[in-house]
Amino acid sequence: MLYQPHLLKNFRFEKSDLPSDEKKQLISQLSERLGKLQLQVQKDKLPVLVLVEGWGTAGKGSRIASMIRSLDPRFFEVISVSSPSAEELAKPFLYRHMKNIPESGKFIFLDSGWMDESIRAMQSGELSEEEYAHRLEDIRIFERQLCDNGYLLVKLFLHISKKEQDKRINDLLSHADTRWRISEHDLQQNRQYEQNINDFDEYLQATHLPYAPWQVIDSSHRKQSDIDCLTALCSCIEAALEQKQAGVPLGAQENSAQKSFPLIKMPLLDEVALNQEMSRKEYKKQLKFYQKKLRKLHNQIYRWKIPVILAYEGWDAAGKGGNIKRITSALDPRGYKVIPVAAPKPYELARHYLWRFWQNLPKRGHIVIFDRTWYGRVMVERLEGFCTESDWKRAYTEMNEFEQQLTDWGAIVLKFWIQIDKDTQLKRFEERQNTPEKQWKITDEDWRNREKWDEYEQAVNEMLQKTSTSYAPWHIIESNCKYYARIKALRILTETLENAIDQAQSRK
Known about the structure:
This protein has about 500 residues and is α/β, with parallel strands linked by helices. The protein has 2 domains: about 35-245, Rossmann fold, CATH 3.40.50.300; about 270-505, Rossmann fold, CATH 3.40.50. The protein contains 21 helices and 10 strands. Strands 2-3-1-4-5 form a 5-stranded parallel sheet, with helices on both faces. Strands 7-8-6-9-10 form a 5-stranded parallel sheet, sandwiched between helices. α3 (about 60-70) crosses α11 (about 220-245), α6 (about 115-125) packs antiparallel against α7 (about 130-150) and α12 runs parallel beside α21 (about 480-505). The longest helix has 26 residues, at about 480-505. The two termini are about 50 Å apart.
């Protein structure tokens, strides 16, 4: 049944009157129905994420086994979500859950997930009351973004009474071959059943969303709970396929686009003065100064475990590569990574567009530099028709949320727009085309994009206005003079790192 506030406390456990053989027949019919739906899921490229949460010993593994029995194993995966690894703990909380989302047309079944992990962290004191409230908001954003981007998220909570849990724990403990299945956490849940039911209700109520509702399954009786899980899953898939075929969005869409952020006013690109100059002599002097400073700061951010994300966007031939090279030349190669972002590969296109960027986030104390970024959604994808109008309009909110989650985690997010004028671009294009060792840098696509300069400029201006936030501002780097541009980026980076380290020291 669909969850209602405080339903777990008031839940009535009832035994079905249906004979056992009729239950078996019904399970067989539902399994066959689900198998046929899998074919339609593949055809319509619907990604399905099934989150199975609930009490210890409630039978999560058995319910998943029942749901997958009739499915083609090439198109689903079951993931048992254990405690986060050391690498996962060095990344944002949602990193390991985002990396597990399915491709279009496939299923992922999660044996526990972000609910169990979050409640455990709250109960252990790892998360304060304020941090837990913030975690719940991050989860709501995560689930909304999945649904807005075409995912079907089915959330099942398997419920049993304290008496039933007592019985199952004692049965498992009484046999040497099954004793290992009972964890200390299961015993803690049982000892503090009433407190846990309050914590579960608080979580379920906070994350019960119109487009991703919780469904509570009475897991007291195996066959009946198999029937209920299969019925819920089939019904959700059928409704989602009907919506998809009718062109109706699965998520919140319009409501999410109304969210406000602390924006910083940005100039229009044609208002940016590009006449800054720097001599080669002065450039060499300042380059040596800032690279020496950056080298020391790199050690300090590692010590203070501050993750750094540099996002580079700009016109073709504006000098992003040379700019990045002058930064990385000062860094320990073990502590940074450069991600050149090209057109998404098929397995990336088959997932949420932010998925491939979540995959490449730095560990604490490390630096990742993106040469082109998630902002392709509101530039090239927008202008070349690779996504719908509602997709790119909604993306401003999604990207602001993404960056807010990163900065709340403790990351520095620096975004550089490398700006040149049209004449400078033409000069650099012609130089590349006429210089054999540089010809690999120029493509037909570069020339095609140049023809759409005015359209791109309009899109970039809108992007700068809507996504330059106080926590992740855009910095326009005037790059007609490459020397000036490289030093400005280095100066902004070193000053930002110094401020972050000062703040870390003051909090100690």
